[in-house]
């Protein structure tokens, strides 16, 4: 038991037992004489408020809140009193706790490596981008790795052992020599150096020896590549459809590639590198002319800067966001029912048949994540989010760019919690994933945007996730943050 000095185990047990049984008189009496009992916790970190919430003891919960019981405390399983009430279906208790002064959600963050596109494979070594001598040396190094893109489509080959999957082709410097020498309309991006070194290449080298670093580059071309493809493995091709093609990347090596020790974590290692390269190349395709004066720009810093060629341009004075690759932040949320056993999902007419997903929207200039969540929920779903009801860890919202929903819902949303983020190279978004709780349940979909929006029970969501024959809908692909938000909610509270 978690007991402070001066509070015996027997006394604490009597207090917790009274709260669990709803003996309000005894709870009041004990707090009057021993106020230090209020936030004491027993086995597995369970306190009086959690036990009252577990057993639906409304009056006892009200008394504990009146004495300013801490609603943010979590037990050993990571649940607050409100989480406990939601799981056991005591809506009246959860609403009471939701309306308390500090609303709380206690979902544990999703580990970064579990989210597709997020695996940090390369050390970007930004300090080397302006070192032309070092870059030139790495461009001719036989160990360097090159990823080739044609109009943002990466060069890949089919995975022989995995149906529907593709491997990105990792080329050596000799394989791209003809492109480097003869293709005028090419763009070269230094991506970074390999974090996990191959022992056969790295042995006998010190950590600070630049010769031992394996550099990765991306080459973007917009010319006829038929001649180049004929010199490569006949199975190589440029991925034509970004979606869902980019979600089907596997880490098995292909073509003239570098073999790397595989990392023991979820998601595709190569997908993260492709996402980085594609996002930077997409930025270059849109900023060939200066947004300030319209003059042509030149590439600098190994692909991470564009500088206006007009000497009098104001963009040359100071630091401007038009000179560097930009990222568009997007918020995406899973809206939970107050009873904790349902979530709100919707579908657009362009979705695959039967698929439902989360709500999402772009963050506007001069807007915080919290403000964006508040605005998007109101604009896209008519949900009022009162100021001051969002905890500081307000959740970032993610989803497929094509799966962003616009729904007209008559709901009120309480606490919002940040859960995870995801790189999304369509063309260069950062998805910020959140969990939030609705205070009302009426739904009025905007028929111009939404085909259907509805509440799904926990059991229905589980059936959809496991692709049960009884499933009434399907979820977004598991590589999306929308899927991760849904799955994370299902796993939460599973041990209560």
TrEMBL record:
It catalyses: a 5'-end NAD(+)-phospho-ribonucleoside in mRNA + H2O = a 5'-end phospho-adenosine-phospho-ribonucleoside in mRNA + beta-nicotinamide D-ribonucleotide + 2 H(+). GO terms for cellular component: cytosol; peroxisome. The keyword tRNA-binding does not apply. ANK repeats lie at residues 44-76. One of its GO terms (biological process) is NADP+ catabolic process. Residues 325-478 form the Nudix hydrolase domain. The keyword Ribonucleoprotein does not apply. Keywords: ANK repeat, Hydrolase, Magnesium, Metal-binding, NAD. It is an enzyme of class 3 (hydrolase). Its cofactor is Zn(2+); Mg(2+). Its EC number is 3.6.1.22. Pfam families: Ank_2, NUDIX, Zn_ribbon_NUD. Belongs to the Nudix hydrolase family. NudC subfamily. This is NAD(+) diphosphatase. The lineage of its organism: Eukaryota, Metazoa, Chordata, Craniata, Vertebrata.
């Amino acid at each position: 038991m978690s007991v402070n000095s001066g509070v015996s185990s027997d006394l604490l047990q009597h207090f917790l037992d009274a709260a669990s049984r709803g003996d309000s008189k005894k709870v009041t009496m004990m707090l009057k004489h021993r106020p230090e009992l209020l936030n004491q916790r027993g086995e597995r970190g369970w306190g009086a408020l959690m036990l009252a919430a577990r057993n639906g003891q409304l009056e006892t919960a009200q008394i504990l809140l009146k004495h300013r019981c801490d609603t943010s405390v979590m037990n050993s399983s990571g649940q607050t009193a409100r989480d406990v009430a939601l799981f056991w279906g005591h809506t009246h208790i959860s609403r009471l706790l939701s309306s308390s002064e500090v609303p709380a959600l206690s979902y544990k963050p999703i580990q970064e490596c579990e989210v597709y596109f997020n695996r940090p494979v390369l050390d970007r070594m930004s300090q080397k981008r302006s070192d032309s001598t070092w870059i030139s040396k790495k461009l001719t190094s036989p160990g360097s790795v090159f990823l080739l893109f044609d109009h943002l489509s990466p060069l890949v080959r089919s995975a022989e052992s995995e149906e529907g999957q593709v491997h990105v082709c990792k080329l050596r410097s000799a394989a791209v020599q003809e492109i480097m020498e003869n293709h005028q309309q090419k763009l070269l991006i230094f991506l970074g150096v390999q974090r996990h070194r191959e022992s056969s290449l790295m042995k006998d080298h010190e950590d600070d020896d630049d010769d031992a670093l394996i550099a990765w580059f991306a080459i973007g071309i917009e010319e006829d590549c038929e001649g180049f493809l004929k010199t490569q493995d006949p199975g190589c091709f440029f991925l034509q459809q970004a979606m869902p093609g980019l979600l089907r990347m596997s880490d098995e090596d292909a073509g003239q590639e570098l073999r790397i020790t595989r990392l023991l974590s979820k998601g595709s290692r190569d997908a993260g590198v492709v996402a980085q390269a594609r996002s930077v190349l997409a930025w270059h395709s849109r900023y060939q002319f200066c947004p300030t004066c319209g003059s042509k720009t030149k590439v600098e810093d190994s692909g991470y800067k564009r500088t206006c060629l007009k000497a009098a341009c104001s963009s040359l004075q100071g630091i401007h966001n038009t000179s560097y690759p930009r990222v568009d932040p997007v918020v995406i949320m899973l809206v939970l029912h107050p009873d904790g056993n349902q979530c709100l999902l919707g579908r657009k007419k362009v979705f695959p048949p039967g698929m439902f997903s989360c709500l999402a929207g772009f963050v506007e200039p001069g807007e915080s994540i919290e403000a964006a969540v508040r605005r998007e929920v109101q604009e896209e779903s008519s949900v009022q989010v009162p100021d001051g009801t969002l905890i500081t860890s307000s959740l970032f919202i993610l989803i497929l760019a094509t799966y962003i929903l616009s729904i007209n819902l008559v709901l009120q949303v309480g606490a919002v919690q940040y859960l995870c983020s995801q790189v999304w190279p369509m063309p260069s978004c950062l998805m910020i994933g959140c969990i939030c709780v609705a205070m009302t349940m009426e739904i009025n979909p905007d028929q111009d945007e939404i085909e259907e929006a509805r509440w799904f029970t926990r059991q229905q969501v589980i059936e959809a996730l496991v692709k049960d024959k009884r499933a009434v809908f399907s979820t977004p692909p598991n590589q999306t943050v929308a899927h991760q938000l849904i799955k994370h909610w299902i796993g939460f509270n599973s041990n209560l």
